[in-house]
Design goal:
The protein is mainly β. It contains four helices and 31 strands.
Length: 459
C-alpha cells in the first residue's frame, strides 16, 4: 500500500438529472477556440456536445486562417478551419488563467490537406518556455496535458522545427478541482483514459470535458446497474455517473483483469488512476476481493470495491516501468467468490517543465512597451528570455539557473520606427543595464526615471 492512496465517493441512489443538467450547461472557466475560424462566424455551439466555440483571433497576433480540403470531412465543425504559421519560428497564444489552478489543456490538429501539398507537418508545442511535446499531425489527433498555471497568463506556443509549417485546429482549456491529479513532479500528459462501456464519452456527461475512450476487451464482459448514480460529490475526480454505473469483469471468473502501457522511453515516469465501484447487489455468501498488482508487485492487497461508491486508487509517487511495459493485474484472492472488476483507468506520463518563466515584472513591462509602440516583431512571442534559442530579438537576459526567473539586462530598440515619448514602462525593467533607442523618431524630454535606474549603465 506504500505510495498509494484511495479516495472514496459516496454514490447517492436518487435522481440527480436536474442537477446534472445544470452542471452540463455550465461552461464557466472553459476556453474553447476554433483556430482559424473567421471572427464573423463566432461563436457557435458544437452540435454533439453543446460546447461553445469561438474564433481564436483575439488570442494570437500571427498566423493565417485556412480551410481543410473539400475532399476531407472530420465530422466536427471545429476541425474544418485551422490556423497555420508560415512566418517566424515561434508563434504563441496568450490566454488569461488563474495562477495555481489545475487546467486540462487540449490541442487538436487536423491537416486536411489545406495547402494541397499532402505533407503532414511536424513541429513542437510549448507551454510557456517549456517543451510540451513534438507533434506529427495525421488525419486528426489531439494531445492533452494537466498543468498547474504558474501565473495569471498562459502561453501555448507552436515552434517550427523543420521545413513544414505548424498548424492547429482547436485549443481548449478546462479548469479542474485542485485536489485532483496533484503531483509533486511535473505536469501530466495523457496517455489514455478508458472506461468499460461500449461508447465514448465526454461533455456534457463529464462536466470537466475529459474524453473517455470506450474499451472492452474480447475476454471481458460488461456489467451495468439500473440505479441512478451520482458521480459528482466529494471525490475530487468527479467520475461521471455513466462511468460509475458500468464496469467490466473477466469472462472466465478465475482469470485476472489485465491492462498495460508500453513506454516510448525506458526512463519515462507515469501516474495511474484506477476507478472502482461495486455496482452488483452481492448476496450474504458472496465476496469480491482481489489484489492490485503492478509489474509483479502488490500495491493493494485483498482490495474490495465499495458498494455504490467510487473509489479511486492511484500512485502518489511516479512509477517507472520494469522491462518493455507497465503491467497491471487485478487478481482474485482465494477467499473471493467473485471475479475482479474495473470501471475506468487513466494513465499519464510525467512531463517535467524545468525552466522558470522570465521575472513577471519584466514580462509585464515588455508587454506594455510592445503595446505602447505598436511593435510587431515576429519573434516577440512567448517568453522573452527562455528558452535561450527562442529569446526575443534585441533582448539580452541574465541567467542564474533553470529554477530562477531570468532578468532582462539589455534592450535594443534601435531603428524600430518608434515615435512619441519614452514610455514609463521602461522603468520597471529594474535590472536593465543597456538601453538603445537610437535612430527612431522619439520626442519630448528624457524622463527623470532613467536617472534613478541603478542598473542602467549605457543608454
Amino acid at each position: 500500500m506504500k505510495g498509494y492512496h484511495q479516495l472514496t465517493l459516496v454514490l447517492l441512489i436518487v435522481d440527480f438529472s436536474v442537477l446534472h443538467l445544470v452542471l452540463a450547461q455550465d461552461q464557466s472557466g472553459f476556453i474553447s477556440l476554433d483556430c482559424g475560424l473567421p471572427p464573423n462566424e463566432s461563436p457557435y455551439n458544437e452540435s454533439s456536445t453543446g460546447l461553445t466555440f469561438s474564433s481564436d483571433a483575439d488570442f494570437i497576433q500571427s498566423g493565417k486562417g485556412g480551410q481543410i480540403g473539400k475532399d476531407w470531412d472530420y465530422g466536427f465543425k471545429q476541425y474544418n478551419a485551422l490556423r497555420y504559421f508560415p512566418d517566424g519560428i515561434r508563434n504563441c497564444y496568450n490566454l488569461s488563467v488563474n495562477q495555481g489552478i489545475n487546467y486540462l489543456i487540449r490541442a487538436g490538429f487536423a491537416y486536411g490537406n489545406y495547402d494541397g501539398l499532402s505533407i503532414y507537418p511536424r513541429f513542437d508545442i510549448y507551454i510557456g518556455p517549456n517543451l510540451w511535446t513534438s507533434v506529427h499531425t495525421f488525419s486528426q489527433n489531439d494531445i492533452e496535458i494537466i498543468h498547474t498555471a504558474r501565473s495569471n497568463f498562459l502561453q501555448i506556443c507552436l515552434v517550427k522545427t523543420g521545413t513544414t509549417t505548424p498548424i492547429i485546429s482547436t485549443l481548449e482549456l478546462r479548469p479542474l478541482r485542485n485536489n485532483s491529479y496533484s503531483t509533486q513532479s511535473g505536469s501530466l500528459q495523457l496517455i489514455y483514459r478508458r472506461f468499460k462501456r461500449s461508447r465514448d464519452l465526454r461533455y456534457p456527461d463529464d462536466v470537466y470535458d475529459r474524453k473517455w475512450e470506450s474499451c472492452l476487451w474480447f475476454d471481458e464482459t460488461e456489467i451495468n446497474t439500473t440505479l441512478t448514480l451520482n458521480g459528482n460529490s466529494s471525490n475530487p475526480f468527479g467520475v461521471p455517473k455513466l462511468i460509475a454505473s458500468s464496469a467490466s469483469m473477466p469472462e472466465n471468473a478465475s482469470d485476472p483483469l489485465t491492462f498495460y502501457l508500453s513506454p516510448s522511453n525506458p526512463s519515462d515516469k507515469f501516474f495511474f488512476y484506477l476507478h472502482f465501484a461495486e455496482i452488483q447487489d452481492l448476496q450474504a455468501n458472496e465476496t469480491r476481493e482481489f489484489d492490485i498488482i503492478f509489474d509483479g508487485h502488490v500495491t493493494n492487497s485483498a482490495y474490495s470495491p465499495k458498494k455504490l461508491q467510487v473509489d479511486t486508487v492511484f500512485n502518489t509517487l511516479p512509477k517507472i516501468c520494469e522491462g518493455l511495459s507497465c503491467n497491471w493485474e487485478l487478481v482474485r484472492t482465494q477467499r473471493s467468490t467473485l471475479p475482479p472488476l474495473l470501471n475506468a483507468v487513466e494513465a499519464y506520463k510525467v512531463v517535467e517543465f524545468p525552466y522558470s518563466e522570465t521575472y513577471p515584472t519584466d514580462v509585464a513591462a515588455m508587454m506594455n512597451i510592445q503595446t505602447a509602440y505598436g511593435l510587431r516583431i515576429i519573434s516577440w512571442q512567448g517568453d522573452p528570455c527562455v528558452p535561450v534559442q527562442l529569446k526575443w530579438e534585441g533582448v539580452e537576459c541574465s541567467y542564474t539557473d533553470m529554477s530562477t526567473p531570468p532578468r532582462i539586462i539589455s534592450l535594443d530598440l534601435r531603428s524600430k520606427g518608434l515615435s512619441g515619448t519614452i514610455v514609463p514602462a521602461l522603468q520597471y525593467l529594474t535590472e536593465l543595464q543597456r538601453l538603445d533607442l537610437s535612430n527612431n523618431s522619439l520626442s519630448g524630454v528624457v524622463p527623470e526615471f532613467l536617472a534613478t535606474m541603478k542598473s542602467l549603465m549605457i543608454m
